[in-house]
Write a structure and sequence with these properties.
Layout: H1 2-10, H2 30-35, H3 41-54, H4 61-71, H5 78-91, H6 96-110, H7 116-132, H8 135-152, H9 156-165, H10 171-179
Length: about 180
């Protein structure tokens, strides 16, 4: 973490000056990529710590989002999953395009629920995110519900949560929820 602290502390001065532009950032976050798609508890804690450290610098929010997405443990229980997704949503306030990308990245990284217990955990977290009423929370909730609902064949609780999201206070959340079709007619 020492090297990462030095990097984070020098971010404010990473402009190369008048003759050059600031160095290009690599398109992939090397730390997140090194952790793989299913990091263990140790890797998740490193990803979280790195994300929280870099989150101090506004120019690194996309990289922080990628770290924190990888750090989420969908098996951690409803409260822990909600806390991790709430942290992600708060990071995205005022960043609607980024939150949409992050929600998709979450789905790519964590896929469909594995079993009924994980499905129930995700559904509960989605409900709590939706209750927040904010755009970032709502878009993350739509993504959780979309993936879980498709996987479950749009059974009762998933369909109910989708209907609630279709009445969300944020228009973008409503639009995303209405874009999901539960029955082809």
């Amino acid at each position: 973490m020492g090297a990462l602290t030095v990097l984070a502390d020098t971010v404010e001065t990473d402009d190369a000056g008048g003759d050059r532009d600031r160095p290009a950032r690599p398109p992939r976050n090397r730390l997140a990529a090194a952790a793989g798609t299913h990091p263990d508890a140790t890797a998740r804690s490193v990803l979280t710590a790195a994300g929280e450290l870099l989150a101090r610098r506004r120019d690194h929010v996309p990289q922080v989002a990628e770290l924190l997405v990888r750090a989420v443990d969908p098996d951690s229980g409803s409260d822990a999953l909600y806390a991790a997704l709430d942290r992600l949503a708060l990071l995205h306030r005022g960043r609607p395009v980024l939150v949409a990308r992050t929600a998709l990245a979450y789905s790519r990284n964590h896929g469909v629920p594995r079993g009924e217990e994980e499905a129930a955990t995700r559904l509960a977290a989605a409900g709590r995110l939706a209750e927040d009423g904010g755009l970032a929370h709502g878009l993350l909730a739509v993504q959780l519900v979309t993936v879980g609902g498709r996987h479950a064949g749009w059974t009762g609780p998933w369909r109910t949560q989708l209907r609630l999201l279709r009445r969300h206070p944020e228009a973008e959340v409503r639009d995303a929820a209405y874009a999901e079709v539960t029955v082809r007619e």
